[in-house]
Design a protein that fits this description.
- The protein is α+β, with helices and mostly antiparallel strands.
- Helices cover 28% and strands 26% of the residues.
- It is built from 11 helices and 20 strands.
- The longest helix is centred in the C-terminal third of the chain and has 33 residues.
- It is globular.
- The protein starts with a helix and ends in a 6-residue tail after the last helix.
- The chain binds FE2/S2 (inorganic) cluster and fe (ii) ion.
- FE2/S2 (inorganic) cluster (FES) binds next to loops.
Length: 394
């Protein structure tokens, strides 16, 4: 089913590749500059988007075995994600039911018991409270009601979505709008987690706009990788999730072969974003690889941080690991010193009042779409959410 969709996209790409055209949005879009720095709007984004919708917080490759866990902070919420002894992924707020201490230090590891560093209360991999120090002294209470607070967690396509609201009833599959079936074509569940790091950046939307934008590639990145890159993009959307790809002459090579033999990896080119804050881009440093970037708002509207993760299709040998490491260092340089350095200056200039709006051209439909979804979600009630997702597939 989704391979058929991939073939349809490749055919559409071929039409544009041959004609030298792209799809265009109906008109030039305008976004008020305050949307990038207004503190109230920024708070609303955190509440209505980041703390309400499923976020892709971890990758299967980080948590392959029972007992594997990852502790992290997401928009101020300490989160503990693990794979329990039955192999299921679960997520909890990383906070002890005794007096709230964070149980696991940020990072990854493997354990079959979570022991709080404060008074050694202990939880199993399902988050059940199983040990209370000096219980006879502590006094009576119901241990079965005092496990870790569970968060909705769903594993699809080798990626793990967690909703930071423990009471959320939003169906993650509905939110994904069929996009996970497309992402399955990467086969991430069998990939190798290589490295990750964190890069500081500007307002999260200024940063995220750049991931949906191929228009800037040969200009801003002319001295690094972009001088020969196309600046034209085709956008496809599944609900709020979007893929950006360029007209791809490689597709011409197999155009006359039977469709079922068309190369899936070639058809998966481009940038696959996951609303509201993920970008997946392919590379070949050390073998087939992707950089999965997770963007998070920082402590103020003008701050964000991005966790860059490098995943490889196969576990690298020594030489491949060296090449992968170099590729990943290069990507840090490009993002920090070109994209985010530009974004930090851009947000400073936006606040001067020189422009009331920023523009997204008809060739920047991905950015237009992203901001339209954000607008919609900032005003949508919880009850309206299911109606928004799942119906928007095109
Ligand atoms: S706060 Fe965790 S055991 Fe006391
Ligand atoms: Fe860029």
């Amino acid at each position: 089913m989704s391979k058929a969709e991939l073939i349809e996209m490749a055919k559409h790409n071929l039409v544009h590749t041959k004609a030298g055209t792209i799809d265009q949005a109906p008109s030039v879009g305008r976004i008020p500059v305050e949307h990038y720095y207004d503190p109230e709007r920024w708070q609303l984004e955190i509440r209505q988007v980041f703390k309400r919708l499923p976020l892709m917080l971890a990758m299967t490759a980080e948590l392959k075995n029972p007992g594997d866990y990852k502790a992290m902070e997401a928009v101020g919420v300490p989160v503990l994600i693990n794979r329990n002894k039955d192999g299921e992924v679960q997520a909890f707020i990383n906070s002890c039911s005794h007096r709230g201490a964070q149980i696991m230090e940020e990072g990854r590891g493997n354990t079959h018991r979570f022991t709080c560093p404060y008074h050694a209360w202990t939880y199993n991999t399902d988050g059940d409270l199983i040990g209370v120090l000096a219980k006879e002294d502590f006094g009576e209470f119901d241990m079965s009601c005092n496990g870790l607070t569970k968060l909705p967690a769903v594993e699809r396509a080798g990626l793990i979505w967690v909703t930071l609201d423990p009471n959320s009833t939003l169906d993650t599959d509905l939110f994904l709008s069929g996009y996970d079936a497309m992402l399955e074509h990467f086969g991430f569940k069998d990939w190798h987690f290589f490295e990750s790091r964190t890069v500081a950046g500007p307002n999260w939307k200024i940063a995220y706009d750049g991931y949906l934008d191929l228009y800037h590639l040969p200009i801003l990145h002319k001295d690094t990788f972009g001088s020969q890159m196309p600046n034209r993009a085709l956008y496809n959307a599944w609900g709020p999730h979007q893929r950006a790809s360029s007209p791809d002459p490689r597709l011409l090579e197999t155009e006359n072969e039977p469709e079922e033999t068309w190369d899936v990896d070639t058809m998966m080119s481009g940038v696959w974003t996951i609303f509201p804050h993920i970008s997946i881009a392919g590379f070949d440093g050390g073998g087939r690889s992707v950089m999965i970037s997770q963007l998070f708002p920082g402590d103020a509207p003008g701050e964000s941080f991005t966790v860059q993760n490098y995943l490889m299709q196969n576990e690298p040998n020594e030489e491949q690991a060296k090449a992968a490491h170099e590729q990943f260092l290069f990507l840090e340089h490009v993002v920090r010193d070109e994209d985010y350095a530009t974004g930090l200056k851009q947000q400073k200039a936006m606040k001067t009042g020189a422009n009331t709006h920023v523009m997204f051209g008809r060739n920047e439909g991905g950015g237009q779409n992203f901001h339209a979804w954000l607008d919609k979600l900032l005003t949508a009630t919880d009850d309206e959410l299911p109606g928004l997702f799942g119906l928007q597939k095109r």
